[in-house]
Amino acid sequence: MPETFEPRxxxxxxxxxxxxxxxxxxxxxxxxxxxxxxxRLMCSGRVDPQFILEAxxxxxxxxxxxxxxxxxxxxxxxxxxxxxxxxxxxxMLDDMGVEEKRCRLEWISASEGDKVxxxxxxxxxxxxxxxxxxxxxRFRDWDKEVAELEHAASAASAPCDCHAHKxxxxxx
Amino acid sequence: MxxxxxxxxxxxxxxxxxxxxxxxxxxxxxxxxxNVEIVFWPVAMDFKKKDVEAMPDGSIAACxxxxxxxxxxxxxxxxxxxxxxKVLIAYGACAHLGGIPALANQFSRERxxxxxxxxxxxxxxxxxxxxxxxxxxxxxxxxxxAFRNVVRALDxxxxxxxxIPGCAPTPKLLKDAVVALLSGKLPPKGTTLAPDxxxxxxxxxxxxxxxxxxxxxxxxxxxxxxxxxxxxxxQGFVCMGPATRGGCGALCLNGNMPCTGxxxxxxxxxxxxxxxxxxxxxxxxxxxxxxxxGVLEGIPDPVGTFYRYGLARCLLRRRVDIKDGAExxxx
Lengths: 172, 331
Ligand code: SF4
Ligand code: SF4
Ligand code: FES
Hints:
- The complex is a heterodimer of chains A (172) and B (331).
- With 172 residues, chain A is an alpha/beta fold.
- Chain B folds into three domains: 130 residues, Rossmann fold (3-Layer(aba) Sandwich), CATH 3.40.50; 41 residues, no CATH class; 102 residues, no CATH class.
- In chain B, the strands form three sheets. A five-stranded parallel beta sheet of chain B has the order 2-1-3-5-9, with helices on both faces.
- The relative contact order of chain B is 0.13.
- Classes of the chains: A alpha/beta (172), B alpha/beta (331).
- Bound molecules: iron/sulfur cluster (2 copies) and FE2/S2 (inorganic) cluster.
- FE2/S2 (inorganic) cluster binds next to α3 of chain A.
């Protein structure tokens, strides 16, 4: 692992609590690690598990979800939905070899700017210890075993009008 | 007389069910044979790879290729048939999404070999023989295609024009595809040739599908008697219907079994497993961690349940921490 590894965190924060808390942390000039890219959603109940997988697949080292405390969700039930999905997704990620600390759910109310700071700093430390996840790099590695043949196949073929070659020509 | 369009069928990592589904066309197969010339179909007719190699590039009107891609030979054939075919169709769940073979993406190649040639209780292999890509016996050399680390869907290896879903596809879908081919009325490239709407829409149990189930437990089909008329979700059985493309006619539901998702997702879903997880979990009754976990115990194997046919197409593609090439410790 390179000395300078800076983990990338994708943070899905709900508009009414955690995003407001992050804002508060900002205006209060609290310093926290700059590693989190915050994506504002209306509610933690909007965090589709597909977003989380996609974040990892596109190179996130960690995903943080922030929502209102139980009983405080602006939409009444959203954070419970989020929690239920998270519990099974967590187990599924485990089965897929994604370490537990890479995906975290926290309830952070609008007044808890300090908690935003603590959670992000903590997560950055934990991800530094784990090292990069780098799924795009892993995908490339896995596909090396087929790249060679692909190359040979396109070299062997004379120009023809099949789709593959039209595409190839269009991209050339 | 104008030449009949040339058609090829081929199989890769598959069980043979997709080949069976071609035969299941029954009388309609006569319509197919009448209108097309089958130039390659190893399971039924005697053609060799060299026959395909001798064909001009792009001379096959359509190739229906079933099975996932696991070995070097399958890759080679996929490239060859891609080159020779105007239209390449991923036929069936394995070519479409990786299928059952892609469940092996949870394990390293070594673990798979170790199980198949050693640890599996029905295997006797005292000498610990393992397949080799090359084996010399005196002056003779025998070769086997390399076994790749990852199981792939067809479009993860070559460019694919259309997808026909299903494990196996129903004869109706194949017939519709052939008719579309013959009439030249093909949809845009990349289309899955089945309705783009969730299975629930054509399920006879649809009217009893609850808007909010409030699962207090999950039951598995072998553990309970299944009501033949009530929506599976209303009975606490995991049903992939809400995240699965329709077009099969709700075959499994008509056989009183929950849908396991073989048609894959609709075009609006990026990851079928994550989608059904999302939909099912959101309607669990409890609101606290312990209560939720208790209900979720009824889904002991989320990967095998939600990605039964689609692990190769999961956004993560395979278990991400596998170290390829490292021998696993004997255990
Ligand atoms: S969930 Fe399953 S049983 Fe219920 S309507 Fe949908 S496909 Fe039918
Ligand atoms: S009900 Fe589901 S598993 Fe059964 S054939 Fe249809 S799509 Fe496939
Ligand atoms: S609005 Fe904050 S979790 Fe729903």
